[in-house]
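Protein modeling request. Please complete all fields; requests missing the sequence field cannot be processed.
Requester role: graduate student
Desired output: 3D structure, token encoding
Chains: 1
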Amino acid sequence: MARCSRGSLLLLAILILASNVPHTRASVKRGNKIKSATFLSPKFVLGPGSVENRFYHNIEFPKGHIGIKNFNAEVIDDAGNPVPLHETYLHHWLVVRYYQRLDVVENNHEQKFKEADRISAGNSGICQRGILNQYFGLGSETRKTATHIPDPYAIEIGNPAEIPAGYEERWLLNVHAIDTRGAEDRLGCTECRCDLYNITVSESGHPLRPDYKGGLFCCYDHTQCKVKQGFQGTRRSLYLRYTMEWVEWDRDIIPVKIFIFDVTDTGKRLNGSTGFGPENGCQIEYEIESCSSTDASVHGCIDVKRTSLTMPSAGYVIYGVAHQHTGGIGSTLYGKDGRVICSSLPNYGEGKEAGNEAGYIVGMSTCYPEPGSIQIAAGEKLVLESNYSRDQKHTGVMGLFYILVADQTPNPTSLLQAPIHMLENMKGSTYALAIIALFGLAIAVAVTVHSRLKKGREEGYRPILA
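Delivered output (466 residues):
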């Protein structure tokens, strides 16, 4: 009986290995290698204290029905050198998908269109229409925040079945950068304090509310932050350099949905509205007041902001990351009964070089749960918490959380994809030795399982597989 059981287990292990070969995931197939390309945004020119916040339509982007695996970006100068945050602060960059009518010609990325000429193709998030609808985007943390999507998942784009007739898929880029060379108050400039920009009306000309002290309404395109008297600095050409990785789409890739949650979300939804503010659900930004000595002793001088959210659809979390500004000390997304879905912590720089700038958030920690380990139910009540230090006042801070969710988990045949991927690149005797090693591993696993089952029987337990 023992020989029979051991032989059966060994045969099962061999069959698992053999059956996996024709069903390995897309990223490891010979004809579906990961491709990569680097692109540049249109040039923008900044001088000390000046601001760039423009929207560029129809940017360079991979074509076809593909799966995005990675997206990274940073600000560089004319020579291709990375620009440190203490010179040009990258408030944020966003990439948004849309559909463009084929019979309309775009010019210089800035031509005005009728609303019917474009159709938004946002993510699966729950904020007001047109708010936080980007597919990709980060801020000062962009250089040291992981963005790769693990196998066998990817963000599906270019699916012909999703593109309306008479339109084509295109991409919009928003770059918000602030030149802080010679700034009188560098942190105040990056936090868009209205007094430093001498702004009292919005970009559209509407008066700002009296209690609005700083944020996006005060550092729009072509505004100017206050610099030290007599400071001289040249205007220079800059670019956002973005690098992408992708694979050709096939049926073995599992698509993921993008959700972006906002800790300022009040839950209000006004039909047809596209703006943001106190009356429109997701407000995007908020202020942190400095703490008194009493606050410090009682609450530890920490601002804790929470909001409740409802997940519109079910799925498995495969990636998570938060977005915070200077002063942030971490954010957590909780599920039902307080279970932690993902916690994301900031990494502050300690030097002067690009990617390690002292006092700036240069990276955010990310979550990559084991496939199937974290599931969110449709209609589940989530809680988003964003924590900031109150050592000083902060304006225009954000508390966003970005997660990728899949409708399904990988099938069991994908579990051995890594060994198979290694075998792909082996030939001759090396390949043969690898095969032998895999079979040896299968034998070891089978013997171990058999021994444990036998031990269980001897100790009086009834094994599940008996």
